[in-house]
Amino acid sequence: MPPKSKKNTLIMVTNVGSTSLQLNSVEDEPFIDKAKFAMKMLVEKKIFLQPKDEIGIITMGDETDNSQDMDYVKEYNEHLLIPNWEMVKYINGLASTKHPCNWIEALHVALCFIKREVVNPDSTVFLVIFNNFKEDADSIENYDADNIIGDLNNYDNLHLLFVGENPLDEESQIENVTPSEEFALSVIKQTQAQYEQINNFIESRRFFMPPPTNSMAWKFNLQWAGLNIACSNYVKVESENIVVTDSTKLSPWKMAAVKESLDFLIDKPKDGSNVNEIKEENKQEVFRANIQMDVHRNEIKQENIINGYKYGGKYIPFSDDDEVAMKYSGSIKGMMVYGFVPQDEVQLECWTGSGSRLIVPETDNDAVAFYSLVQAMVEKRYAAIVRKVYANNNLPRMGVLFPKVVYDDVWGFVHIELPFVTDLRIIQKRPIQSLDGSVNKEKLDALDDFIDAMTIVDNDPEYLNPGMFPNVINQYHWNAIADRVLNPKGALLPLNGYLKKFLEPPEYLNEKVKTHYEKLHKLFGNINMHKETTKDKKSAHVAPKIANEPEKTGATKDILTVGKDNDEAASDSEELDMSMGELDDL
């Protein structure tokens, strides 16, 4: 069971004054539009993933409406509110005014708002200030940075983030830094506050991801050769089909119906009101319920039902006592090493258990014995066969421990549960004939160059690095729901451009492989693009037949085939489906 997440508070302060519409030399969109989009994303993320958090919105350069009577500062509400769609509509409706803006006065209002509304001293408060820092120098010079720094340091759980128009880090060479930016930098250097450029802020938060939490460890004793090593087990990778958490699953469908007491479905309202609006206002939620019924469709109460099994045409009842007697008992919580096997002998189908988990020593006293075992298994290239019992009187499960030794990372064991024999599926193997003599060195070098050109190196681009790929399905789900709330009519939101880039090869890779593709075309003859059909998918279980002819390469959706003519290429492509695999549609 994961630890309970703490309720956080988000305060957003944004500039809607006369300077919010100004453009710099490299931007084609006013700052206020980007700030509104960023605020909208933050509120939508709270609605979807952190609905219990609280939010406050403050605008500077707006009409005066705040508890401190600061000029041109407005509070959206005098109290903190849970995230809702009215906030999103309010943010979308913000417009630039002709009033001056002063982020220092807005910061003072925000700190007073936090002091008044945040009653839990352990609550974490995130204060985000969106401003392009183009205030007049006279309005900034009247304030003392030391007083502001002292006020900020009085809050232990306050995280202040400035989001501005220009990159103000040391690597960026920005000319004509405004006095307002200099004042903000002086505050940042002497506090825990941070600064982020607004384009980077939006790009890094386009995907809604739940905040990271500390994993809860499963503590046990690892028994081996008479030793008991106290260990902790942490979830490393979860299999979403088996272990589903609140952060990975989407909310289920909810149904609603119009109250039967209304008769507007027959007669149009006489007051001229919109029928669709009345329907929306008078909807009530529909709940699913499981009702037990007999063969005559009579409802049966739960207390009158006896559980049982039906085999051989006969119903076999099982009482509660029988169920208790059937339960396995006698096992003790822990993990026991049964033996060791070479890592190369662990077959691929044995890696299909319910996710993988990382095991580390519990205390420093157990670390010596634990890491000695890890080091020995690394040197011998062994894996350990273990028997795991999650809790007393639970059924044991068999698994494999692989030593994990990576520089500048946690050392330990990776535990993978072995599947039951009934869960295994047989894959018939076919011998593959040698290609020696049919492919010369020039063709092999061309293929190597093609693979090198398609290889993605570290940080190029960063979003395609292993472990960085986000859940595009979930994000499009959030985007579509948010768009439907704000625009109830019309077509659904199309797939956004920033989502498509995760589903298509980068443009620079296509340019890199263009020359290599032409070389392959010259060396291997005809190269045709074969579109995968339904027939191809159904025949994917057929193993490929490798003939004594030049090697054929394939892709998942567009399959490259090599042959003497189009007819041969089309027939050969059907045999390549199994060898190349099939990419699940996203």
Per-chain topology:
Blueprint: E1 9-15, H1 31-49, E2 54-60, E3 73-75, H2 85-92, H3 103-117, E4 125-130, H4 137-141, H5 145-153, E5 158-164, H6 179-189, E6 194-197, H7 198-204, E7 218-224, E8 227-237, E9 255-258, H8 275-281, E10 283-286, E11 308-311, E12 314-317, H9 320-326, E13 334-342, E14 356-361, H10 364-380, E15 382-389, E16 397-404, E17 412-417, H11 441-454, H12 472-486, H13 497-500, H14 507-524, E18 526-531, H15 534-538, E19 558-563, H16 566-573, H17 577-580
Parallel strand pairs: 1-2, 1-4, 4-5, 5-6, 7-13
Antiparallel strand pairs: 2-3, 7-8, 8-14, 9-10, 11-12, 13-15, 14-17, 15-16, 16-17, 18-19
Summary?
By secondary structure, this protein is an alpha/beta fold. The chain has helices spanning 31-49, 85-92, 103-117, 137-141, 145-153, 179-189, 198-204, 275-281, 320-326, 364-380, 441-454, 472-486, 497-500, 507-524, 534-538, 566-573, 577-580, and strands at 9-15, 54-60, 73-75, 125-130, 158-164, 194-197, 218-224, 227-237, 255-258, 283-286, 308-311, 314-317, 334-342, 356-361, 382-389, 397-404, 412-417, 526-531, 558-563. It folds into four domains: 9-204, 3-Layer(aba) Sandwich (Rossmann fold); 249-326, no CATH class; 431-461 and 506-586, no CATH class; 463-496, no CATH class.
Plain-language structure description:
The longest helix has 19 residues, at 31-49. The chain folds into 4 domains: 9-204, 3-Layer(aba) Sandwich (Rossmann fold); 249-326, no CATH class; 431-461 and 506-586, no CATH class; 463-496, no CATH class. The chain is built from 17 helices and 19 strands. Helix 1 (31-49) runs antiparallel to helix 2 and helix 1 (31-49) packs parallel to helix 7 (198-204). Helix content is 30%, strand content 20%. By secondary structure, it is an alpha/beta fold. It starts with 8 loop residues before the first strand and ends in a 6-residue tail after the last helix. A 7-stranded mixed beta barrel has the order 7-8-14-17-16-15-13. Strands 3-2-1-4-5-6 form a 6-stranded mixed β-sheet, sandwiched between helices. The chain has a two-stranded antiparallel sheet with strand order 9-10. Residues 534-586 are annotated as: Disordered. This is Ku domain-containing protein. It is found in: Nucleus. Residues 297-435 form the Ku domain. It comes from Trichomalopsis sarcophagae.
